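User: I'm writing a tutorial on reading structure tokens. Could you give me a worked example: one chain, its sequence, then its tokens, then a sentence or two explaining what the tokens reveal?
Assistant: Sure. Here is the example chain.
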Amino acid sequence: MLPEFHNEPLTDFSIEANRNVFRAALAGIEKQLPVRGQNRIGGKTFHSAKTFESVNPCDKKQVVGRFPEGSVTDARRAVDAAF
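And here are its predicted structure tokens:
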């Protein structure tokens, strides 16, 4: 069971220590980019020869991830798996 949802408190980025922690976290994540996504339907992984890229909207040269394109068949599988 998932814990009850609650919003995290806002971070005050006017405080230098908060900015530094955030910068360090971003640097750690950037080392893992681009992520490689998967299509999972009904607990199974489906691959595709075609992929698309998701880019950082602030730096369009930075690829955040590459993901497989879903097909009509994948959509039908997903609908069937939902029932």
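What the tokens reveal: The chain has a mean pLDDT of 94. Helices lie at 16-30, 72-82.
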